[in-house]
Amino acid sequence: MRIFHFSDTHLGFNDLEILNDQSINQREADFYDAFTQVIDAIIEIQPDYVIHTGDLFHRPHPSNRAISFCLTQLKRLSVAQIPTIIIAGNHSTPRTRSASPILAALRTLDHIHPVFEEKYEKIIFDNISFHCIPHINDEAGNLSAIEECEASIDEGKYNIMMLHCSVGAQFMMEEYGERVYPKEKEALFEQLDYVALGHWHGFGSVGKHSNVYYAGSTERTSSADARNDKGYAIITLGDNLNVAFHPITLRPSHRFRVDALAVEDIFDDLRSKADSFPCNGALLTVILENLSAIQSIDIANRDIEACFPTALNVQIQRKFRRTESSAASESVTSASLQEYFGAFLEEQSSTPEEAARLGTKVSALFARYEENSRDA
Questions:
Q1: Is the dihedral of CA 334, 339, 344, 349 positive or negative?
Q2: Which domains, ranges and CATH numbers included, belong to the chain?
């Protein structure tokens, strides 16, 4: 028996304010493309069952476009008569019970089984049971759902548990309402053939449990995710459990680090990196480390971006070397920041001419900031 496991598709996600030829946010379109690739793979593979472990949408109230796109793609699975179970994640769950859950719309599709009512639910087929615990805002309700699952294991069938939470981690993603699975309840996993997880965006097994896996997300929601492959997992049940990850094709994403203390010319290093990596249409993060304040003022973002003319977007992070002066500046009030910064640059400048040039730049920057503050 084969089960197709994917998760955290975050349909409707958008950022960067870049539009494509159809006037759709380019990153939003990327998430739709990733989802389409997964649905194409399902139609081609024809698994026995499909499971999605939460965060189908990025928001509990997605746009009309996101809803329409999702229904159109899931209709393909409905027509193919592939049983598909989808649980709600924290992103797709309303924060109040008075709001209507968006996953209720999926009930209009045959063979699609959405689970979103903040309680344990078992989806039963002839030879397999899916024990579903969607995102539950109430902590006591979450524990009650786990205990109900413990009492509902079916003998003589495959038993699959579906969760959207952190398992085996003592830290959080700092998102609204996210849950950590109680460690004292992990013994339940031994009674299950497979535990399908959503919430964390990287594929992989969890700790000592050989049958507990995150499928990961199908797209990247942050630049910190640049090195993670995205895709889906094929689960084969039989005498032995087999879990195989299959990547999909995404827009390239790279992180470049430049140490200002280790290179003679930052821009030469950046141009070299641009020649060494496929940057066409890519999402890039450039991290400048060990910068001095003088170096940073002389390095304009537009000049960094010009090193990667074919990239979709270049995100720039600046990390300054720590000096006694910079440590002292942490206690300076915002009212005296311009004066203090000007004095610091004068101290660091090698000539009066350089100090005057940088001082002019600082004055212009603070004037622009004040102008923008008045307009806000």
A1: positive
A2: 2-247 (3.60.21.10), 252-321 (no CATH), 331-376 (no CATH)
Beta pairing class for 209-214 and 204-206: antiparallel
pTM: 0.84
**Which of 355, 46, 54 shows the shortest CA–CA distance to 199?**
54
Q: How far apart are CA 264 and CA 241, in angstroms?
A: 54
Distances (CA, A) of 270 to 263, 277, 286, 288, 308: 10, 11, 9, 10, 8
Are the C-beta atoms of residues 10 and 203 closer than 8 Å to each other?
A: no
How much is the pLDDT for 207? 83
- Cα–Cα distances in angstroms (integers) from residue 362 to residues 2, 292, 336, 356, in the given order: 63, 15, 13, 10
> Cβ distance 346 to 294 under 8 Å?
no
Give 64's Cβ-side CA count (13 Å radius): 0
Distance between CA 281 and CA 273 in Å, rounded?
15
What was the pLDDT predicted at 223?
A: 83
User: What pLDDT, on a 0 to 100 scale, did the predictor assign at position 332?
Assistant: 47
Position 23, amino acid: S
Amino acid at 29: A
Q: Do residues 125 and 83 touch, judged by C-beta distance below 8 A?
A: yes
3-state SS, residue 194: strand
Kindly report the length of the chain: 376
Q: Which of 133, 87, 91, 134 is nearest to 114 (CA)?
A: 87
Q: Which of 217, 50, 54, 218 is nearest to 135 (CA)?
A: 54
Cβ–Cβ < 8 Å for 337, 272:
no
Q: Which strand ranges, in their side-by-side order, compose the sheet holding 128-133? A: 121-124, 128-133, 158-164, 194-198, 209-214, 204-206
**Three-state DSSP class for 50?**
strand
From the first residue on, what is the mean pLDDT of each consecutive set of 10 residues in the chain (376 residues)?
98 94 96 98 98 96 96 98 97 80 95 96 97 94 96 96 88 68 95 97 92 97 84 96 98 93 93 92 95 88 96 94 58 52 62 68 67 55
